[in-house]
Every structure is written in structure tokens, then in C-alpha cells.
Amino acid sequence: MRFLAATVSAFCIVNIAEAYFQTPLASRELGLPVANFKLSDMLDTFNAARAGERKHEATDILSPRGTPVLAVDDGTVVKLFWSVPGGRTIYQFDTTEHYCYYYAHLDGYEVHLKEGLPVRRGQVLGYVGTTGNAPANSPHLHFGITDIGRDKKWWGGTPIDPYPLLRSTALKLGIKN
């Protein structure tokens, strides 16, 4: 009986561990979040100071107004949201619901976009703009990534610097400037 109990316990522990094991984000092939992406348009602004004592915790990608914003990974649109700092935003979970991708300052959403919609890497989600606190003369995508943890809250989590991940993707694709 003890042998059976030990075997069942070991089986459960292994399956629970596998269920919570997540592939590290750095090992994924993320897509690029804007059409016609150039390395020179991406600003390493993750640790930049913002009003008060907060940090930027995102990467800004300068692009002409109306440039298509693309899903960087397969997943689900979990929230379409308006905020004072971010303006028109999209929160997208990856397929494991471990990471949240944040797209902000959008001028508009793709016409069929809605909460709960599954999306594929490279799919158009919206369009670069200057909503929220973005300067009117500086259209850009504010792109962030968070490790959302077990709570699965689109508004929470631990920020991850997207700059090195996007730079790596661009270099793998042969994009130099």
C-alpha cells in the first residue's frame, strides 16, 4: 500500500511540475511588434525615469502614425483599455498565460479586434499613434512585457525588458538598421 501511495504521489508531483513549467521568454522566437521595423527606430527606454519615482518599463518604437502594430506571439487579446498614460491599449496573453504583451498609444484597433480573440504572431492588432500621454508630434508604439505569474492579472506582474528580446529577433531576421 505504501508503494502505491508513493507512486501516486510521485506521479502527481511530476505532472504538477510539468503543468507549471514555463519556457523562458528569451528562448522564444518573438515577432516584431510593428510593420517595417528598423533597429534605429527602437529606443532602449526600459529604465528611463518617468514622472514621480516610476520607471518607463517598456520600449518605445518610433513609427509613422498608422503603421500596423503586430502581435509578437500567439495568444489571446485579454483587454482593450483606455488609460490616461497609455491611451488606447491592448493587453495580450501568450498561449501559456505566463506573459502579457502590452501595446500602447495606439491610434486605433484593427476593425475585428475584441477581447477574447485568439491571435497569431504577425497578426495586425492596431495602428501606431499618439494617444494617452504620448507627444502629438512623436507617434510611437510603447511596448511592454510582464511575467504575470499565477494571478493572471493583465494589469500586474513583473516587467521584463523587451529591448534585448526584440533586438535579438531583428538580428536573427537580418534587420540591421
Can you give a write-up of this model?
- This protein is an alpha+beta fold and 177 residues long.
- The chain has a single domain, classed as Glucose Permease (Domain IIA), CATH 2.70.70.10.
- 17% of the residues lie in helices and 31% in strands.
- It has 2 helices and 10 strands; from the N terminus they run H-E-E-E-E-E-E-E-E-E-E-H.
- The chain has helices at residues 2-20, 162-172; strands at residues 42-43, 59-62, 68-70, 75-83, 87-94, 99-109, 118-119, 124-128, 140-147, 158-160.
- Strands 1, 2, 3, 4, 5, 6, 7, 8, 9 and 10 form a 10-stranded antiparallel beta sheet that branches.
- The radius of gyration is 18 Å and the shape is globular.
- The N and C termini lie far apart (66 Å).
In angstroms, what separates the terminal alpha carbons? 66 Å
* Order of helical and strand elements: HEEEEEEEEEEH
Number of domains: 1
Q: What's the oligomerization state?
A: single chain
Low-pLDDT segments, ≥5 res: 3-22
Tally of helical segments: 2
* Relevant CATH superfamily: Glucose Permease (Domain IIA)
Notable features of this structure?
17% helix, disordered N terminus, ten-stranded antiparallel sheet, 177 residues, Glucose Permease (Domain IIA), alpha+beta, globular
Summarize the structure.
By secondary structure, the chain is of the alpha+beta class. It has helices at 2-20, 162-172, and strands at 42-43, 59-62, 68-70, 75-83, 87-94, 99-109, 118-119, 124-128, 140-147, 158-160.
